Amino acid sequence: MSDGEQRIARLIEKDLSPGETAELERLLEADPALRARLGAQVALHGMLGPLAEDESAREGVIRRYVEAIRRADEDTFEQEVRRKLRKVVSRRRILLAAAAAVLLLAAGVLTWMRFPEPVATVHRVESVTGGDALAARDTLTRGNRLKFRGGLVELDLHSRGRMIVEGPADLEFTGPMSAVLRKGRVLLRVTPDGRGFRLETPRGTLVDLGTEFGVLVDERTGEVETHVLEGEVKAIPRGQPQPILLRRDEALQQTGDHNVRIPTARDSFYASLPPARHGLPAMIHWDMEASGPSGLPARSRGIEEGNHGLRFFAGDRRISPRTVDGPFGRAVGFDGRRIFAESEFKGIDGNSPRTVAFWARVPSDFDKNQGFAMVSWGEWDPGNPGGVWQISINPFSGDGPVGRLRIGVHGGMAVGSTDLRDDRWHHIAVVLYPAENPEFGQHVLLHVDGQLEPVSKRLLGEIDTSTKDASHGVWLGRNINIDSDNWFFRGALDEVYIFDAALSQEDIRALMERNEPPR
Amino acid sequence: MTFCGNPRGSRHCSYVDEKDELRTSSAALGDPDAFATIVRDNQRWLRGYFRARLPDWAAADDLAQDVFVTAILKMRSFRGESSVETWLLGIARNHLRNHLRKHREQALGGSEEIQTLLERSCDEWLGEERVNESFEALATCMERLPDMARELLDLRYVHGKSVREISRETGKGYSALTMRFHRLRELLAECITNELERGKA
């Protein structure tokens, strides 16, 4: 590829320095053929999005345009009415002026009611429950109230920025540049056009000064926390005249009349939603039906050939697994003392999106030494904290409530909310995806029994799982931390799946309800 | 939809087909349904026009909306001397010029000189009358691409991810991906040209 073409490719990605742009300009002036190629490249760059979008996206755009046109037409009509009314006023003086004012007001109110101003568009909806039906491309207008019990909604504030709302949430848009957050977590990423966006909370007002910040409103305690991730925010506490300026990495906790500066929790908010799945994901599945000492076969799709079956061990000795009744056929029991399973499949590498789904039964007399780990892989290396990850039952009260689902990397964890210590089968699905900005933001979704799990404790750093040089494959029932005393999981597992993509809630429910992977 | 003139020749058509005429006259009388049809027929290429020139696609789509709003307000002054497309394109050029006057930093080309060259190059490639036809040709060409290439284009153009984001997600190198997109666009551009030539024959 010629130098000129390489520069065109980078120009399209806005990746040229001023010097390189000037050089490209010179090349284009001198070479009509290169100019033609620039024309084709740029035109295609513009055409591909509108061409490839699906029908619902296209219809959403058309609907938005037609609404804007109707509004503009209505405004013109209203202006015409105003003009005519002015003539009437001049003739009939005060009495008719009053009537005209009423008419104008009514016309204004009617217009406002019929054509309220769109302030945001729903960009993505992830596992939302307990609220009005929401779908991508839905338009929110002034006065719209977004209320839902659980899940995540990503909103496009048009040119003003983006917002990710985490349930349980209650958010009302009072205008294109203002909203009221009564409950929930919100991450707001504001563009220069949105500078000055005001977010009202029960404890006061937050005014954006060109930034990215997260706000948590806890309805139960009345507490409000504001965490500034980039830029600056002005906090105006209710009833207090003096605003508080918060800068990057500063946070404010507001309780009653108290305003306390606290450390920023950079992992407390979802900064992005998982990437949508394209095509069929590669997967591996262990159904946990009965097997002999030779192991339990794997079903796989799109994964490099190999013997990926599970071999069961008690310490160093190969054994036949102890099977118990599971949600789908038989399941395998783990004794919490020395039994575990290993596959030659090394797991998903790096920070690639992944979903791990399985059924787990945890005893009601769960012992904190028997929580690690249901599923784990990677290579344990104290010098590489993100190199391993594992799915466990949280045994440490200091890390969050005990008995809840726990996703851990060395030095970080996210802990769910549902107590799993009840001798019953629960369907677990963990979706992990690359962080948009590894410096902050949550990037893991926990599903328990088909519902997105509120995460009670979050402190999950970047995950970069090392599988290439790992000395072992995926483990079931064994702690990945070889320096730990808590070695093995006690309980039972069934229908274990690993996918190389972020599955949707619908996909996860199909696994839970019908044991049916995406197809 | 009827287009007139040589695809690389005259830019100004003086012919409007009967359907267009009916639509525009109904729209001029304030029939919103008639205008909705005009939106449906033209939104794709108009958005493509702005997206080719502005890296912020949300702003590009907003500008396309502004074109339609301006069009309905000026509908009564539309005399039918040119096609609807040419008329809309004229409005679009004005909106783009005004937008870039205020937000020069948002132009794809960056400097004014390169933006002028970019405009000229785009016009030279197909000619404005064939925008809708070229979309049809592009749809045909896309079907011929292998699944993997289509999925890659989906990530960039449907999901709106930047090449850096795709690089992070797929683990592929940023430079290699930038060149891969370049080659795919080149392939599609050649295919469109061939398709249009075939149609002409």
Care to describe what's here?
The complex is a heterodimer of chains A (519) and B (201). Chain A is built from five helices and 30 strands. With 519 residues, chain A is of the alpha+beta class. Chain A folds into three domains: 50 residues, no CATH class; 146 residues, Jelly Rolls; 232 residues, Jelly Rolls. The longest helix of chain A has 60 residues. The two termini of chain A are 39 Å apart. Chain B is mainly alpha-helical. Chain B folds into two domains: 113 residues, Rna Polymerase Sigma Factor, Chain: A, CATH 1.10.1740.10; 75 residues, Arc Repressor Mutant, subunit A, CATH 1.10.10. Helix content of chain B is 70%, strand content 0%. In chain B, helix 2 runs antiparallel to helix 3 and helix 2 crosses helix 4. Chain B is globular, with a radius of gyration of 18 Å. Classes of the chains: A alpha+beta (519), B mainly alpha (201). At the A-B interface, helix 1, helix 2, helix 3 and helix 4 of A face helix 2, helix 3, helix 5, helix 6 and helix 7 of B.
- Which sheet architecture does the biggest sheet of chain B show? none
Level of helix content of chain A? 10-25%
CATH architecture field of the largest domain in chain B: Orthogonal Bundle
Count of DSSP strands of chain A: 30
